[in-house]
Amino acid sequence: MHPCRSDRRRDPAVVLSGSRHNRSDGHASASDARSTPVFQPAGSSETHRSHRRQPDRRPCVRHTQSDESHIHERPHPRHARLPCRHRHSKRSAMHHGFQQCSILRRSAQRVHSLSGILHRKALRPSARLHSRYSAHSSLSVVYLMDSDNHLNARRPEVIIEANIPFIRGILEPVADVSYLEPERFTPETVATADAIVTRTRVKCCEDLLGESRVSFIASATIGLDHVDLPWCRSHGITVVNAPGCNAPAVAQYVFASLLSLPDFGPLDGKTLGVVGVGNVGRIVADWGERLGMRVMRCDPPRALAEGATGFSSIEEIAAEADAITFHTPLTRTVDCPTFHLCDDSLLAGMTHRPVIINSARGPVADNEALIRALRDKRISNVVIDCWENEPDISRTLLDMAAVATPHIAGYSRQGKIRATQMAVDALTAHFGLPATQWSEKMADGAKATISAGLIAASYDPMADTAMLRRDPASFERLRNHYHLREELS
């Protein structure tokens, strides 16, 4: 946001909308007295002229130089897209009317019977405060907007995967929103959408989006392997995800699983290999050290960028670790591929018969290779949350694994709120929609108070394992209707 100028800080002026503004002779008509007062946002009319409703026209690709002062436009070769409001000087005026206000909490709504209506306390006449509450919790979101700009802008059409929690009612004040089950995302249903918000079950590629006007995809999860990034990039589609949103929950899952294994023993003094030291792996490694474990870190891209000090090779981890946990993205690049990173050749070098934990992406570990390693006793146990071919998982591996869960390692209440918040904030920024304030602040998982006793009491992975074994065909239902657990804080 550009700094406010003095001519934008004055109170909004009240003007009359009506026929007088369409006349060129400077005289008002008799109907002016019946015209309806409307509020203009703070600033001169010249400041906001670019935000008045414009006639429909073909979109363009905008190329900005580093100072964002020089813009080149050319017709976009694809279907019409709702243009992103870039934050250059002519467009930034729409942000200057925003006001900072306290959040109207649910308790206040109960007392004053204001649920679902506008709260205008401490606002200038031109501002409106919109509050929407999720059906899943007491989380509230406040929209700070300039009503004149908001009403004059075309509302983007947004399609949201129906199983994403904490999002219903959040975007409705500023967008036309519909909710679809993953299997109902088809070229026909997304044809007129400007944006989609989804998770890993919707494959975002040319087959789905080729004839649509989608310009923005938000993945309310960490992974992006369900998105054809090169194709989206070449067609001007912005893609965002929620990195680190569930990191504390995954750490909770990893150590609760290890503590549930009767043959593993106390964590103190054991060696933990962490493969992939990004947002999730960093917290897992930190928790491991705080629990008294010796932690070996493997992250080839980081080792290349930062130097080898502090990092180990995956072969060194295979030879020394008592437990190896994977936290990599799924990639098939030539330099550092992670597809089947845990395969027969890696498992053959595991001399300590470690526990293998996969809570990253299913194809990071070759499921058939894990079965062979268990049979040959090259590894002692498998903890698996992410599977190949989900939801049609290997029944053999399900029976042999010590802990087997339906892709819910990161399913905490706080993690889901973070993911939704990150997706909504990115979407509103992309389309120049009103900013949001979230009433619930998430604690940093790296600073959580942890101990073996607290972790074991906070989550029992064997209960989830029992439910999946009872009915493997219910994998997707168990995942979509999972009771979100609480993180350690």
TrEMBL record:
Residues binding substrate are T200, T221, Y411
Where in this chain does the record put each D-isomer specific 2-hydroxyacid dehydrogenase catalytic domain?
A: 186-429
Q: Where is the D-isomer specific 2-hydroxyacid dehydrogenase NAD-binding domain?
A: 267-409
Q: Which InterPro entries match?
A: D-isomer_2-hydroxyacid_DH, D-isomer_2_OHA_DH_cat_dom, D-isomer_DH_CS1, D-isomer_DH_NAD-bd, Erythronate-4-P_DHase, NAD(P)-bd_dom_sf, PdxB_dimer_sf
Transferase found in the keyword field: no
Query: Example GO molecular function term?
Result: glyoxylate reductase (NADPH) activity
Matches recorded under PROSITE patterns: D_2_HYDROXYACID_DH_1
Region Disordered: which residues?
A: 1-98
Q: Where in the cell is it found?
A: Cytoplasm
Query: Its annotated pathway?
Result: Cofactor biosynthesis; pyridoxine 5'-phosphate biosynthesis; pyridoxine 5'-phosphate from D-erythrose 4-phosphate: step 2/5
User: Where are the catalytic residues?
Assistant: R361, E390, H407
Instruction: Report which reactions are catalysed by this protein.
Output: 4-phospho-D-erythronate + NAD(+) = (R)-3-hydroxy-2-oxo-4-phosphooxybutanoate + NADH + H(+)
Which intervals carry biased composition (Basic and acidic residues)? 1-12, 56-74
Family statement:
Belongs to the D-isomer specific 2-hydroxyacid dehydrogenase family. PdxB subfamily.
Q: What does this protein do?
A: Catalyzes the oxidation of erythronate-4-phosphate to 3-hydroxy-2-oxo-4-phosphonooxybutanoate.
Its quaternary organisation is: Homodimer.
Protein name as annotated: Erythronate-4-phosphate dehydrogenase
Q: Which species does the entry assign this protein to?
A: Paramuribaculum intestinale
